[in-house]
Specification:
- By secondary structure, the protein is α/β, with parallel strands linked by helices.
- The chain has three domains: 3-145 and 283-351, 3-Layer(bba) Sandwich (FAD/NAD(P)-binding domain), CATH 3.50.50.60; 148-280, FAD/NAD(P)-binding domain, CATH 3.50.50.60; 372-442, Immunoglobulin-like.
- It contains ten helices and 25 strands.
- Helix 7 (190-201) links the parallel strand 9 and strand 10.
- Helix 7 packs parallel to helix 8 (220-227).
- It is globular and about 65 Å long.
Length: 443
């Protein structure tokens, strides 16, 4: 690519009139998935790659995750969230990849009349105004959002002092604001556990972490490092049944739940507190995917994809937490790189299709990603990610050729839990003679 081409690409962020430009790859979202995908796409030959990010800077949620523990798999060292993002931003800056900040993608539509660039993204920003951006391939790396109080219908008053854990994390870590002095956390997801430690270090008193399920929804290392090390009690099989307060939260009522997750009368515990954090789950952000007509999986709430992370719409890819919620950012980066390479191949006309094998979850497994494998584009080894339905001991992850079919692979597990994503790697050759594989957890 010539210097003139590089300058033209870079000029997009400055507001140059390049609506007529046909981009090889458009990346929607500049968090860890978008950064890794854009770099991989460029290195695979997609020299006209553009990232559209709605925030004022790249890095996504990593910018507010100032705790360490990132990058152990990828860099063999512990990094903070900003440091991990910085590694990829540094790599991005070595390449003439265009970036448009404060630019929100409203929708991605299909244009059947434009054979060269069948996808058009409609984007708005304070500096660029309204733009229609055409691309040969589009990668949706829009991340995820938190579930709120309204999603679980907790009864009671509506005072200030009730935050999602991620919102509290941003206030404390990026804005330098304290959210409260006496805190209860509902939900034992990783963000909630990390915030229990963070608020303790900031001088707040974390009274308890309350979890509806009979097991924690966070990684074991976070249970140990964020709760046990600070003597913060964890109430399993409990939930908040009432929020009390006028202008500011005054107290909450917590009760034990039965096997159907219904509160048990007479088990109520009252906590005097001024802050309640909600760490009650993450939902893949897929409004843009819906506008494109992408088929979504009701279990993951992300797109249905093949091994290249290509969705039901040719040329539209999905990766990272927009596809399914990950435990480790290292897996996000790895998955995004695969999507970036495949998006570049699609843009450059280097793809081919062959037999498609469907993948589905069996007994005791909640979901499997990807949901299909195209043997025309699959690598020699295909990775599958999944979450189990409960905490189990001494089981086997079994991959079969169809329901009750021959065993293609099995892995013994001493312990599995929904909070920790499982991964199985299967040789492509094992898929050539089957139409469907089923992944189950068996005795």
């Amino acid at each position: 690519m010539s210097n003139a081409d590089a300058l033209e690409i870079q000029s997009f962020a400055a507001g140059a009139d390049v609506d007529e430009t046909v981009w090889d790859v458009l990346v929607v979202g500049g968090g860890p998935a978008g950064l890794a995908a854009a770099i991989a796409a460029y290195d695979a030959g997609a020299k006209r790659t553009l990232i559209v990010e709605r925030d004022k800077e790249l890095g996504g949620v990593l910018n507010q995750c100032i705790h360490n523990g990132f990058g152990l798999r990828r860099f063999s060292e512990e990094l903070t969230g900003p440091e991990y993002a910085g590694r990829f931003i540094d790599e991005l800056n070595k390449r003439p990849i265009a970036v448009a900040l404060e630019a929100t993608c409203l929708e991605v539509a299909q244009d059947s009349e434009n054979a060269e660039a069948p996808l058009v993204a409609r984007v708005v920003s304070p500096t660029l105004g309204f733009r229609q951006i055409r691309a040969k391939s589009t990668i949706l790396s829009t991340g995820c959002r938190e579930r709120t109080r309204g999603a679980i219908g907790t009864p009671g008053d509506r005072p200030s002092g009730v935050f999602t854990a991620g919102a509290a994390q941003r206030y404390v870590n990026r804005e330098g604001e304290k959210v409260g002095k006496r805190v209860v956390i509902l939900g034992s997801g990783d963000i909630g556990l990390i915030m229990a430690r963070r608020l303790t270090l900031e001088g707040a008193k974390v009274l308890a972490v309350v979890e509806l399920m009979p097991y924690s929804n966070g990684l074991t290392r976070n249970i140990v490092q964020c709760l046990n090390d600070y003597d913060i009690p964890l109430y399993l099989s409990h939930t908040v049944t009432k929020i009390v307060g006028k202008a500011r939260l005054e107290k909450i009522i917590v009760a034990q739940v039965d096997e159907k997750r219904a509160p048990i009368p007479g088990t109520e515990i009252e906590f005097d507190c001024d802050t309640l954090l909600l760490s009650i789950g993450l939902i893949p952000e897929n409004e843009v995917a819906r506008t494109a007509g992408v088929e979504l999986d009701s279990r993951t709430r992300g797109p249905i994809v093949n091994e290249s992370r290509e969705t039901s719409i040719p040329g539209v890819f999905s990766c990272g937490n927009a596809l399914h919620v990950h435990d480790l950012v290292d897996f996000v980066s790895e998955e995004a790189e695969e999507a970036g390479k495949a998006a570049a191949a699609r843009a450059l006309g280097k793809t081919s299709s062959a037999k498609v094998v469907s993948i589905r979850n069996g007994a005791r497994v909640n979901y499997v990603v990807p949901q299909r494998v195209d043997l025309g584009t699959a690598p020699e080894q295909v990775s599958f990610f999944m979450r189990v339905a409960n905490v189990f001991q001494n089981k086997r992850l079994v991959v079969r050729a169809g329901e009750g079919g021959d065993v293609l692979k099995e892995i013994k597990r001493l312990r599995v839990a929904p909070a920790e994503m499982e991964r199985v790697v299967l040789d492509r050759a094992a898929l050539e003679d089957v139409d469907e594989i089923v992944v189950s957890l068996e005795d």
